[in-house]
Amino acid sequence: VLDRMQTLAETIGAGPAETHLLVTTFNNLVAGPDDLSLEDETELTQQVETLMREDVLPAYAEFAEALETLKADAPEEPGIWRLPDGDAYYDTALAAYTDEGITPEALHAQGLLEVERLTDELMAALEAQELVEGTLADRLELLAQQEGQLYEDTPEGREALLARMRDHMRRAETIMADVMPAMPGTGVTIRAVPEFLEASAPSAYYSAAPANGSAPAQFEINLSNISDWPDFMLPTLVFHETIPGHHLESALTAESANLPLIRQMVWNVAYGEGWAVYGEILSQDMG
Protein backbone atom coordinates (compact mmCIF):
# COMPACT_ATOMS: atom_id res chain seq x y z
CA VAL A 1 0.00 0.00 0.00
CA LEU A 2 2.76 2.44 0.95
CA ASP A 3 4.74 1.61 -2.19
CA ARG A 4 1.75 2.34 -4.39
CA MET A 5 0.94 5.55 -2.53
CA GLN A 6 4.54 6.71 -2.81
CA THR A 7 4.59 6.01 -6.55
CA LEU A 8 1.35 7.94 -6.98
CA ALA A 9 2.63 10.89 -4.92
CA GLU A 10 5.87 11.02 -6.90
CA THR A 11 4.01 10.80 -10.20
CA ILE A 12 1.48 13.54 -9.39
CA GLY A 13 4.22 15.64 -7.81
CA ALA A 14 6.41 15.62 -10.90
CA GLY A 15 6.77 18.95 -12.71
CA PRO A 16 6.92 21.20 -14.51
CA ALA A 17 4.00 23.15 -13.11
CA GLU A 18 3.06 24.72 -16.45
CA THR A 19 2.20 21.37 -18.06
CA HIS A 20 0.91 19.56 -14.97
CA LEU A 21 -2.41 17.78 -15.45
CA LEU A 22 -4.11 19.84 -12.74
CA VAL A 23 -2.96 23.08 -14.37
CA THR A 24 -3.99 22.06 -17.88
CA THR A 25 -7.37 20.96 -16.53
CA PHE A 26 -7.81 24.38 -14.92
CA ASN A 27 -6.76 26.10 -18.14
CA ASN A 28 -9.42 24.19 -20.06
CA LEU A 29 -12.07 25.19 -17.52
CA VAL A 30 -11.10 28.84 -17.24
CA ALA A 31 -11.38 29.24 -21.00
CA GLY A 32 -15.10 28.42 -20.82
CA PRO A 33 -16.84 31.42 -19.17
CA ASP A 34 -17.73 34.11 -21.71
CA ASP A 35 -17.49 36.95 -19.20
CA LEU A 36 -13.77 36.42 -18.51
CA SER A 37 -11.41 38.62 -20.47
CA LEU A 38 -8.18 37.28 -21.92
CA GLU A 39 -6.29 39.31 -19.33
CA ASP A 40 -8.30 37.69 -16.51
CA GLU A 41 -7.69 34.22 -17.92
CA THR A 42 -3.96 34.89 -18.15
CA GLU A 43 -3.80 36.22 -14.60
CA LEU A 44 -5.72 33.26 -13.18
CA THR A 45 -3.56 30.79 -15.08
CA GLN A 46 -0.40 32.41 -13.78
CA GLN A 47 -1.73 32.31 -10.22
CA VAL A 48 -2.52 28.60 -10.53
CA GLU A 49 0.91 27.85 -12.00
CA THR A 50 2.57 29.70 -9.12
CA LEU A 51 0.44 27.85 -6.57
CA MET A 52 1.32 24.55 -8.19
CA ARG A 53 5.05 25.34 -8.33
CA GLU A 54 5.43 26.81 -4.84
CA ASP A 55 2.89 24.86 -2.78
CA VAL A 56 1.33 21.80 -4.42
CA LEU A 57 4.39 20.13 -5.98
CA PRO A 58 6.54 20.61 -2.83
CA ALA A 59 3.68 19.21 -0.72
CA TYR A 60 3.54 16.06 -2.86
CA ALA A 61 7.32 15.70 -2.58
CA GLU A 62 7.07 16.03 1.22
CA PHE A 63 4.27 13.47 1.26
CA ALA A 64 6.37 11.02 -0.78
CA GLU A 65 9.29 11.46 1.65
CA ALA A 66 6.98 10.82 4.61
CA LEU A 67 5.78 7.60 2.99
CA GLU A 68 9.40 6.52 2.52
CA THR A 69 9.93 7.04 6.25
CA LEU A 70 6.79 5.08 7.14
CA LYS A 71 7.93 2.15 4.99
CA ALA A 72 10.89 1.58 7.31
CA ASP A 73 8.56 0.52 10.16
CA ALA A 74 5.79 -1.03 8.07
CA PRO A 75 5.14 -4.76 8.64
CA GLU A 76 6.06 -7.09 5.80
CA GLU A 77 2.85 -9.07 6.24
CA PRO A 78 -0.25 -6.86 6.31
CA GLY A 79 -3.45 -7.79 8.10
CA ILE A 80 -6.12 -6.31 10.35
CA TRP A 81 -5.39 -9.13 12.79
CA ARG A 82 -2.27 -7.24 13.87
CA LEU A 83 -4.38 -4.48 15.44
CA PRO A 84 -6.20 -4.59 18.82
CA ASP A 85 -9.44 -6.58 18.47
CA GLY A 86 -8.42 -7.24 14.87
CA ASP A 87 -9.98 -10.71 14.74
CA ALA A 88 -13.32 -9.40 16.01
CA TYR A 89 -13.22 -6.57 13.49
CA TYR A 90 -12.51 -9.06 10.69
CA ASP A 91 -15.47 -11.23 11.75
CA THR A 92 -17.76 -8.19 11.81
CA ALA A 93 -16.58 -6.99 8.40
CA LEU A 94 -17.04 -10.48 6.96
CA ALA A 95 -20.61 -10.62 8.26
CA ALA A 96 -21.33 -7.21 6.74
CA TYR A 97 -20.12 -8.36 3.34
CA THR A 98 -21.57 -11.89 3.41
CA ASP A 99 -23.74 -13.45 6.09
CA GLU A 100 -23.59 -13.58 9.87
CA GLY A 101 -23.66 -17.37 9.83
CA ILE A 102 -20.35 -17.92 8.01
CA THR A 103 -16.89 -18.12 9.54
CA PRO A 104 -13.63 -17.02 7.90
CA GLU A 105 -12.46 -20.63 7.82
CA ALA A 106 -15.63 -21.85 6.12
CA LEU A 107 -15.52 -19.08 3.53
CA HIS A 108 -11.87 -19.82 2.79
CA ALA A 109 -12.65 -23.51 2.31
CA GLN A 110 -15.53 -22.60 0.00
CA GLY A 111 -13.20 -20.36 -1.99
CA LEU A 112 -10.67 -23.15 -2.42
CA LEU A 113 -13.40 -25.43 -3.76
CA GLU A 114 -14.45 -22.74 -6.24
CA VAL A 115 -10.86 -22.33 -7.44
CA GLU A 116 -10.63 -26.09 -7.96
CA ARG A 117 -13.94 -26.18 -9.85
CA LEU A 118 -13.04 -23.27 -12.10
CA THR A 119 -9.58 -24.69 -12.77
CA ASP A 120 -11.11 -27.98 -13.93
CA GLU A 121 -13.58 -26.09 -16.11
CA LEU A 122 -10.84 -24.00 -17.70
CA MET A 123 -8.58 -26.98 -18.30
CA ALA A 124 -11.38 -28.79 -20.12
CA ALA A 125 -12.06 -25.73 -22.29
CA LEU A 126 -8.37 -25.38 -23.14
CA GLU A 127 -8.08 -29.07 -23.99
CA ALA A 128 -10.95 -28.56 -26.43
CA GLN A 129 -8.68 -25.95 -28.11
CA GLU A 130 -5.93 -28.62 -28.29
CA LEU A 131 -3.91 -26.91 -25.55
CA VAL A 132 -2.98 -29.97 -23.52
CA GLU A 133 0.57 -29.33 -22.29
CA GLY A 134 1.65 -27.67 -19.06
CA THR A 135 -0.12 -25.99 -16.18
CA LEU A 136 -3.21 -23.83 -16.47
CA ALA A 137 -1.00 -20.73 -16.56
CA ASP A 138 1.15 -22.28 -19.30
CA ARG A 139 -1.88 -23.05 -21.45
CA LEU A 140 -3.41 -19.61 -21.00
CA GLU A 141 -0.09 -18.07 -22.03
CA LEU A 142 -0.03 -20.24 -25.17
CA LEU A 143 -3.58 -19.14 -25.96
CA ALA A 144 -2.62 -15.50 -25.50
CA GLN A 145 0.28 -15.90 -27.94
CA GLN A 146 -1.92 -17.15 -30.76
CA GLU A 147 -2.39 -14.93 -33.79
CA GLY A 148 -4.82 -12.07 -33.31
CA GLN A 149 -4.84 -12.23 -29.52
CA LEU A 150 -2.37 -9.50 -28.50
CA TYR A 151 -2.70 -5.81 -29.27
CA GLU A 152 0.29 -3.67 -30.20
CA ASP A 153 1.74 -1.49 -27.45
CA THR A 154 1.15 1.68 -29.46
CA PRO A 155 -1.49 4.43 -29.33
CA GLU A 156 -3.19 2.72 -32.27
CA GLY A 157 -3.07 -0.66 -30.52
CA ARG A 158 -4.55 0.77 -27.34
CA GLU A 159 -7.35 2.44 -29.25
CA ALA A 160 -8.05 -0.81 -31.13
CA LEU A 161 -8.38 -2.64 -27.80
CA LEU A 162 -10.73 0.00 -26.40
CA ALA A 163 -12.80 -0.04 -29.60
CA ARG A 164 -13.11 -3.81 -29.32
CA MET A 165 -14.36 -3.46 -25.75
CA ARG A 166 -16.90 -0.82 -26.76
CA ASP A 167 -18.17 -3.13 -29.50
CA HIS A 168 -18.72 -5.88 -26.93
CA MET A 169 -20.65 -3.47 -24.70
CA ARG A 170 -22.84 -2.19 -27.55
CA ARG A 171 -23.66 -5.77 -28.50
CA ALA A 172 -24.64 -6.54 -24.91
CA GLU A 173 -26.78 -3.39 -24.74
CA THR A 174 -28.67 -4.39 -27.88
CA ILE A 175 -29.36 -7.92 -26.67
CA MET A 176 -30.31 -6.93 -23.12
CA ALA A 177 -32.67 -4.19 -24.32
CA ASP A 178 -34.79 -6.91 -25.92
CA VAL A 179 -35.19 -8.90 -22.70
CA MET A 180 -35.04 -6.34 -19.88
CA PRO A 181 -38.20 -4.48 -18.83
CA ALA A 182 -36.04 -1.36 -18.45
CA MET A 183 -32.48 -0.33 -19.20
CA PRO A 184 -30.48 2.27 -17.26
CA GLY A 185 -30.90 5.87 -18.30
CA THR A 186 -27.32 6.51 -17.21
CA GLY A 187 -24.61 5.71 -19.74
CA VAL A 188 -21.17 4.23 -19.19
CA THR A 189 -17.92 5.06 -20.94
CA ILE A 190 -14.93 2.78 -21.46
CA ARG A 191 -11.49 4.35 -21.33
CA ALA A 192 -7.89 3.63 -20.38
CA VAL A 193 -6.58 4.58 -16.95
CA PRO A 194 -4.65 7.87 -17.37
CA GLU A 195 -0.94 7.16 -17.72
CA PHE A 196 0.02 9.09 -14.60
CA LEU A 197 -2.22 6.78 -12.53
CA GLU A 198 -1.22 3.47 -14.13
CA ALA A 199 1.46 2.56 -11.58
CA SER A 200 -0.95 2.79 -8.65
CA ALA A 201 -4.24 1.78 -10.28
CA PRO A 202 -5.77 -1.72 -10.26
CA SER A 203 -6.06 -3.69 -13.48
CA ALA A 204 -9.65 -2.66 -14.21
CA TYR A 205 -12.52 -1.10 -12.30
CA TYR A 206 -16.01 0.34 -12.63
CA SER A 207 -17.04 3.67 -11.09
CA ALA A 208 -20.72 4.51 -10.76
CA ALA A 209 -22.06 7.78 -12.12
CA PRO A 210 -22.41 10.79 -9.79
CA ALA A 211 -25.76 10.93 -8.02
CA ASN A 212 -26.61 14.25 -9.69
CA GLY A 213 -26.26 12.76 -13.15
CA SER A 214 -23.57 15.24 -14.17
CA ALA A 215 -21.43 12.55 -15.82
CA PRO A 216 -21.77 8.95 -16.99
CA ALA A 217 -20.40 5.95 -15.16
CA GLN A 218 -16.89 4.91 -16.13
CA PHE A 219 -15.14 1.63 -16.71
CA GLU A 220 -11.37 2.05 -16.80
CA ILE A 221 -8.77 -0.52 -17.86
CA ASN A 222 -5.09 -0.30 -16.98
CA LEU A 223 -3.03 -0.62 -20.17
CA SER A 224 0.40 -0.11 -18.60
CA ASN A 225 1.17 -3.63 -19.85
CA ILE A 226 -1.12 -4.20 -22.80
CA SER A 227 -0.03 -7.84 -23.12
CA ASP A 228 -2.00 -8.49 -19.91
CA TRP A 229 -5.14 -8.16 -22.05
CA PRO A 230 -5.30 -10.70 -24.87
CA ASP A 231 -8.44 -10.52 -26.95
CA PHE A 232 -10.04 -13.63 -25.43
CA MET A 233 -10.21 -11.91 -22.02
CA LEU A 234 -12.10 -8.84 -23.17
CA PRO A 235 -15.70 -10.10 -23.59
CA THR A 236 -16.00 -11.49 -20.05
CA LEU A 237 -14.28 -8.43 -18.62
CA VAL A 238 -16.67 -6.05 -20.39
CA PHE A 239 -19.81 -8.04 -19.56
CA HIS A 240 -18.77 -8.27 -15.89
CA GLU A 241 -18.00 -4.58 -15.49
CA THR A 242 -20.65 -2.95 -17.69
CA ILE A 243 -23.67 -4.73 -19.17
CA PRO A 244 -25.20 -6.99 -17.98
CA GLY A 245 -22.87 -6.76 -14.96
CA HIS A 246 -21.95 -3.92 -12.62
CA HIS A 247 -23.31 -1.01 -14.63
CA LEU A 248 -26.69 -2.58 -15.30
CA GLU A 249 -27.17 -3.50 -11.64
CA SER A 250 -25.71 -0.34 -10.11
CA ALA A 251 -27.39 2.13 -12.44
CA LEU A 252 -30.83 0.52 -12.20
CA THR A 253 -30.52 0.44 -8.40
CA ALA A 254 -29.55 4.12 -8.28
CA GLU A 255 -32.43 5.05 -10.59
CA SER A 256 -35.08 3.03 -8.70
CA ALA A 257 -37.25 5.62 -6.95
CA ASN A 258 -39.11 2.93 -4.99
CA LEU A 259 -35.94 1.98 -3.08
CA PRO A 260 -34.82 3.71 0.14
CA LEU A 261 -32.10 6.28 -0.46
CA ILE A 262 -29.53 4.20 1.42
CA ARG A 263 -30.15 1.29 -0.97
CA GLN A 264 -29.73 3.59 -3.93
CA MET A 265 -26.47 5.06 -2.64
CA VAL A 266 -24.70 2.22 -0.80
CA TRP A 267 -23.40 -0.62 -2.94
CA ASN A 268 -23.72 -4.14 -1.51
CA VAL A 269 -20.41 -5.75 -2.50
CA ALA A 270 -21.41 -9.41 -2.13
CA TYR A 271 -24.65 -8.91 -4.06
CA GLY A 272 -23.01 -6.68 -6.66
CA GLU A 273 -20.14 -9.04 -7.40
CA GLY A 274 -22.53 -11.98 -7.42
CA TRP A 275 -24.66 -10.15 -9.97
CA ALA A 276 -21.63 -9.38 -12.14
CA VAL A 277 -20.57 -13.03 -12.20
CA TYR A 278 -24.17 -13.92 -13.05
CA GLY A 279 -23.87 -11.35 -15.84
CA GLU A 280 -20.91 -13.27 -17.25
CA ILE A 281 -22.93 -16.49 -17.31
CA LEU A 282 -25.99 -14.73 -18.72
CA SER A 283 -23.87 -13.26 -21.52
CA GLN A 284 -22.64 -16.70 -22.46
CA ASP A 285 -26.16 -18.16 -22.39
CA MET A 286 -27.47 -15.35 -24.61
CA GLY A 287 -24.70 -15.67 -27.16
From TrEMBL:
Name of the protein described by the UniProt record: DUF885 domain-containing protein
Superkingdom in the source lineage: Bacteria
InterPro entries in UniProt: DUF885
Source organism: Hyphomonas atlantica
Pfam families: DUF885 (PF05960)
